[in-house]
Amino acid sequence: MQTNSTIRTLYLIGPSSTGKSTLFRAIAKNMRLDPGQCVTEVARTVMKNTGFSRKTVGDIEMQRTIMEAQLEREQVARSVAGSSAVRVVLSDRSAVDPIAYAVLTAATEDEARARMRVLVDTSEFQAALRRYREGMFILFKPVPEWLVDDGVRSTDKQGQSSEVFPEVLKELGIPYVELGEEIKDLQARVAFAKRLIGQVVRASFFLLRNRVNILISSSLKGMRV
């Protein structure tokens, strides 16, 4: 009997207006994933149900609430994927996203560290972190002509968030690959994502992760959680 450890999870993360939602829908359709295997619109749902808004994005409680909701949705999706012929979970964000936005909206470096610690030190995130380090993360980079106001995050912060996301991922020891304007065609992006998911290229992904870990080790010398 297969266990949840054999489930492959692909996280599409990064700033808004980078093509995440479009690629998310295309991958789900291409792979014929059950809706229950797809984690999407968590932040919007939380904002709708709680009264949080873009104006309160700097509120650590907002980011904590989003993180908790994300982790709950991921667990449900893993349960669905566990009984599916296609043992894949697809998510258009991760619990790393609220950490990145908590850091991004901090007034000082000390505050950023404190905010990060509040979210990272929870038992729920620590449990997820073990999975994240074995997962597949695509970090989306901005494509200038695609930038729009999505009503959730300010476009003024998109450039800064492009710098914060990789810093947080490296500090947490989470391997990732980047996707930006070098691949704009949707079908090419789907193929790129499926190559990460596919069993045939798992060895290549592990090799890539080892290379990223070298960068992580170097980065951690100057950055500590």
Automatic annotation (TrEMBL):
<dbReference type="InterPro" id="IPR027417">
    <property type="entry name" value="P-loop_NTPase"/>
</dbReference>
<dbReference type="InterPro" id="IPR038727">
    <property type="entry name" value="NadR/Ttd14_AAA_dom"/>
</dbReference>
<dbReference type="Pfam" id="PF13521">
    <property type="entry name" value="AAA_28"/>
</dbReference>
<protein>
    <submittedName>
        <fullName>AAA domain-containing protein</fullName>
    </submittedName>
</protein>
<feature type="domain" description="NadR/Ttd14 AAA">
    <location>
        <begin position="11"/>
        <end position="180"/>
    </location>
</feature>
